[in-house]
Write a structure and sequence with these properties.
By secondary structure, the chain is mainly α. Helix content is 69%, strand content 0%. Helix 3 packs antiparallel against helix 4.
Length: 230
């Protein structure tokens, strides 16, 4: 039972400019970024990348700009180029949580789950660790192209996907359980928890999670309920 391919398009959309915040100042860079956003929304990724290239001509040492271009490349399924961009961002800012996170998501989309997990682990390290971590207050960071942080439940959700895709159900379960406890993306988390529990023989608990997923609007969970929860 795998959901990897089914969720690829959803994840690709979610990582591109979902955290974008353009500067209001009338600068050459912000104009190019605004144009890039417009092209991205039209799915004209080539023109969006051209605009970000022009922005980088004015500021070639910006980790944020590399991250933005990496996001567009990732949505365009240019994974090699995207990973190069995220690596450049990390070289400029080795503690950039967003760069490591987007690197992990791109590795996941490219079916390189071990590399994805390492990138997500690095993202977690920038926040402290799995057990003790710090959620940064995004309001403290102004005049930024993108948010300065990724919430821990979001990182663990995507790391859970990578674990699940490589059939490491124990670690996937732990990450999805963390998301469940923090009420993150419950519509999908309950589906994964349900399927993992069913595979381990915990039918009642698994079916309870699947029923919750259906109640939250996840139609895919009904297929498993019909088959395993009679």
């Amino acid at each position: 039972m795998t959901f990897n391919k089914r969720y690829k398009s959803l994840i690709a959309i979610s990582i591109v400019f979902a955290l974008f915040s353009c500067r209001d100042s009338d600068t050459k860079i912000s104009k190019h970024i605004k144009k890039a956003l417009e092209y991205q929304q039209e799915k004209d990724y080539s023109k969006a990348i051209d605009e970000l290239n022009r922005a980088q001509e004015s500021d070639g040492n910006s980790a944020d700009l590399y991250i933005l271009r990496g996001k567009v490349n990732s949505q365009a399924e240019k994974y090699v180029e995207a990973l190069n961009d995220f690596s450049q961002a990390i070289a400029i800012d080795p503690k950039n949580t967003v760069a490591y996170f987007d690197q992990g998501v791109t590795y996941y989309l490219a079916d390189k789950n071990d590399s994805a997990i390492r990138a997500f682990n690095n993202a977690i390290k920038t926040k402290g660790g799995d057990s003790l971590y710090l959620e940064f207050n995004g309001k403290l960071f102004k005049d930024k192209y993108i948010e300065a942080d990724i919430p821990m439940p979001q990182i663990k959700y995507f790391r859970g996907l990578a674990f699940y895709s490589k059939s490491d159900n124990e670690n996937a379960f732990n990450d999805f359980s963390f998301c469940f406890a923090n009420k993150y993306n419950l519509k999908e988390v309950n589906l994964y928890l349900g399927v993992i529990l069913l595979s381990s023989g915990s039918t009642k608990r698994g079916c309870d999670h699947l029923l919750t997923a259906v109640q939250l609007g996840n139609e895919n969970a009904q297929t498993y309920i019909n088959k395993y929860c009679k």
